């Protein structure tokens, strides 16, 4: 008789086998890819950081020190590494400065996370501990911060200078920093004192001269010539300015079709009608007392013809044509006038008034300046000059960063020291806090504290100093209670960095730490990549 063997009941533990190897490999690959992106921009951190030369696929060459620009132009394919590019964009829109810092901090945090994961700590535990540490870090930074008033112009200039000192155009920081402060303060609206819209500060680039020739213009600047056809005026005092969005040219048929005229008398009639049509429009314009026309660029047909320019010149009306559609809002806000969409709506109350509109020769080209605007809106224009296109573009990017720094101070009126001082102080205080915490949390917070030391370490390394000796000395100074001790890269030693006028807005540092932590937590939580074709 055959023995019937009862089925063996396996224990539930051995029944299911979960392969965690793949998840670990994906996580490891993501962290390594993101770290390599962070290492690419690390050398450009700080006032002694290196610049990058970027050659695009269209043979365009860019020389820059700005983290957001470098990462934006890099063609990153790995999805996790792309997150670091997005991270620098987030920092750029939140604070405007600290785009390199945020990526370097994220890279250092990822390196520490790799170590914690290799010790068998679960990613969720690491992620939660990092969030706690980041919140605590923001509290520590806020406690360190020094309040600042908008009336204290010197402090604002110092923070803008600190931002510019790490740029290619750092030698012009004494000119650009006060210019950025004045530009932002002139557009602050008393009704909304915490809000600054940088679209109210227009940057016009003009090749020629040097960055020294950059100026703040209280009015409008157009990077184009006055229309010279038929000898029209190029200078107009007591200007009455109209911004028009219609065309001063003969109408066309709505559909594409050609009209064949075989008779000369008919041809003359067409030309006569054209003349009387244009003349009628110009008489209506002249009747309002308007003597300066800003004409929007037209897609459908020519905004002006030679004939209309001839009549406008006879009527002594100065014409600036081909004004871009997206500039109209800024122009009307500045001139405190209304855009006119139809000749029938052309009225005196829609005009803007200015003391002077004139064409000025600048370098090898010409620009048009409108100054002395009556009841001018809360806007300003910065005319940036540069000897070549590379310098011009970098000056614009640097000026944008300086404007953003001043905007941060308007939004959150606190300053903290620069030069690696806040990071070392955070590292020290979080390290002490980690000892109080229990279990895995304490390990993770300590790792977060160590990661923050990457900023002073990199600053020292990029300045050609001995990073280990500098960071050790810095730790020692902070342990003795010198919370504003930082790396003075010019002297190559540690000094009180507030006295050296190296300051930055609190918002730049707090948003850098929060955004970097958020990005790292997201990367940690990813355990698989699914590609959909």
Automatic annotation (TrEMBL):
Subcellular location(s) per record: Cytoplasm
InterPro entries to which the protein is assigned, alphabetical: Chap_CCT_delta, Chaperone_TCP-1, Chaperonin_TCP-1_CS, Cpn60/GroEL/TCP-1, GroEL-like_apical_dom_sf, GROEL-like_equatorial_sf, TCP-1-like_intermed_sf, TCP-1_chaperonin
Region Disordered, annotated ranges: 1-20
UniProt keyword Iron, yes or no: no
Example of a GO MF term: ATP-dependent protein folding chaperone
Keywords annotated in UniProt: ATP-binding, Chaperone, Cytoplasm, Nucleotide-binding
GO cellular component: cytoplasm
Keyword Transmembrane helix: no
Main location: cytoplasm
Record function comment: Molecular chaperone; assists the folding of proteins upon ATP hydrolysis. Known to play a role, in vitro, in the folding of actin and tubulin.
Homology family: Belongs to the TCP-1 chaperonin family.
Protein name: T-complex protein 1 subunit delta
Organism in which the protein naturally occurs: Glycine soja (Wild soybean)
Lineage start: Eukaryota, Viridiplantae, Streptophyta, Embryophyta, Tracheophyta
